[in-house]
Amino acid sequence: MASANYETLGLSSDQVLSMYESMLLARKIDERMWLLNRAGRIPFVVSCQGQEAAQVGAAMALNTEEDYLLPYYRDVGLVLHFGMTAQELMMQGFARADDPNSGGRQMPGHFGQKKNRIVTGSSPVTTQLPHAAGIALAAKMEKKNFVTLVSFGEGSASQGDFHEAANFAGVHNLPVIFFCENNKYAISVPMEKQSGSEHISERAAGYGMPGVTVDGNNPLAVYEAVKKAADRCRNGEGPTLIETLSYRQTPHSSDDDDSSYRTKEEVEEAKQNDSIHTFSAYLRECGVLTETKEKELQEKIKGIVDDATETAESAPYADPETTLNYVYAPKGGDL
Ligand SMILES: Cc1ncc(C[n+]2csc(CCOP(=O)(O)OP(=O)(O)O)c2C)c(N)n1
Ligand SMILES: [Mg+2]
Hints:
- This protein is an alpha/beta fold.
- The chain contains ten helices and seven strands.
- The chain has a single domain, classed as Thiamin diphosphate (ThDP)-binding fold, Pyr/PP domains (Rossmann fold, 3-Layer(aba) Sandwich), CATH 3.40.50.970.
- Magnesium ion binds next to β4.
């Protein structure tokens, strides 16, 4: 699969193995969520399946100790690599009090975790982009070196917020990466009915920034593009628009029936390029992964997902008395 060798990108074998581990963990958490949903144990799933390589490749190219992330609802791979745990993700799936994202108040997929600089988003898509431009403006004004990465789907790039944020970032040369995860569909609307141009990245020129399209099934290609964009941000060279090409392998959400707008054959064909398999094959070719190591990894991840599921399912819901917390300030108290 991968054209560039991981070593030429400055990555070690441990680093590429940890990329694969995060991708696999994201996939296994997602698959478990579907099982739980179909068994009536969690209310809703919105899936990362097919986008793990793009998400983990991007996260790997950032500084997880200081950079800011404004993810969108599919970004399990991004938030995992930024420090959110499988257990915390399951807490949000089960809507429990210990969910760090919203204490079980929001729908799953509304990621936010202050200690990992993951900024919470809203349900209307693309609202996170102007926020990201604002955070990048703060970095510039305060002469701080952090990078802000904001992600969104190709359908979301039709919203006004995309254009406003990109233009503002271009005008002010802000250290922000616009990371578009093009998975070919916006619910039932295919890319060709979404955009007059073949690629979302072509729009970058209109806002005075570079735009690139990369293979979203290849985590190394995504790593390379995001690393370059992050270096540009840190060198004061301004924003970049990156578009990753992958395929949404599941229906839009657990409430969607995709058979009404695409064929099973199309989905099966796209799955031939599933990065979980192609990256695993690449790592075996390089001698980084062996059959024994892969088996160990699968078992380790199964254990993590089992533990996370059990712990979250038996955890308490939020106390009803806390319903109005963070909505109204307590009388005379701190928020
Ligand atoms: C402003 C707004 N319009 C419509 C919706 C309903 N909606 C939720 S997700 C979605 C599709 C977004 O597609 P895309 O940006 O390609 O992301 P994907 O789900 O494919 O990852 C839509 C239309 C919404 N949440 N917000
Ligand atoms: Mg999409």
